[in-house]
Amino acid sequence: MMNVLVDADELIYKACAAAEYDLEMGANHILMSDFATTQRIFCDQEAKICDALGAGVVFMALSDRKNFRKEVLPTYKSNRKNSRKPLAYSRLRTWVVEEYRTIERPGLEADDILGIFHGDFDYIAASDKDLLTIPARVYSLYKDTITEVSPAQANYNWLTQTLVGDRVDGYAGCPGMGQVKAKTFLGRLGAIPGEISGSELPEAWAAIEEAFKDKGIDADSALAQARVARILRPTDWDEEKQKPILWSI
Fold it and tell me: Are residues 97 and 192 in the same domain?
């Protein structure tokens, strides 16, 4: 039987969003939610993961309410301040903590929990593309696919994300560097297409710094974007001090 670490944030959000409904009361419309429905949808998602992977033990990764990336780059997810979570989100999260085995760490997102502790599990389960920056076996619930990501592929995907940026998460990347240009750029830096090995990282990062510099962005700002784009790995976390170890070359 397989052990699986699941991005519980994703399951909670989708369960709560799917359970919302519009109640018409005369001229008014009221947004409603049934908590039992959120629980059922959450359990259905977990059951699908277990069935697909033959999971025997499931742990749920949860984000802390604080986020270390906001200290690295103040714009990180700043555009989400006024966006609401779906109804019953906090209540369902509390229920998950009570009913399941969970892992949380101060200042970390669920993605980071997956990245740090993936070695203790046979699979990590989430659908976020950022999980492809973790060297692990990744199961996507919504695509129903398993992707085995090597360390060199994880480096390539992470550096691609650094160059392209993520405006939804509040970092812009290198101006003018879309997916196609980023892949072409990184393709010249690695010996194998789609991969950047650990030994290639110093030279690759020097080239990336230069690309940012050409667009008027200094090395410290480029590094800040790389740090927020990087999902933490075991070497990026100090368990004793309960603090992230920010990446540097």
Answer: no
Q: What is the pLDDT of residues 85-137, one digit of tens each?
A: 999 999 999 999 999 999 999 999 999 999 999 999 999 999 888 899 999 99
E strand or H helix at 9, and its extent? helix 8-19
- What HEC string does 41-79 produce? HHHHHHHHHHHHHCEEEEEEECCCCCCCHHHHCCCCCHH
What is the per-residue pLDDT across 113-127, written as a single tens digit (0 to 9) for each? 999 999 999 999 998
Question: 47: which strand partners?
Answer: none
Q: Write the pLDDT tens digit of every residue in 74-87.
A: 989 877 777 889 99
Three-state SS for 25? strand
24 exposed, middle or buried (CB, 10 Å; 0-12, 13-18, 19+)?
exposed
The pTM for the full model equals 0.94
Note down the domain range covering 56: 2-22+32-148
pLDDT value, residue 108? 98
Residues 249, 155 contacting (CB under 8 angstroms): no
CATH number of the domain encompassing residue 88 = 3.40.50.1010
Cα within 13 Å of Cα(206), Cβ side? 5
Task: Kindly state whether residues 138 and 46 are assigned to the same domain.
Answer: yes
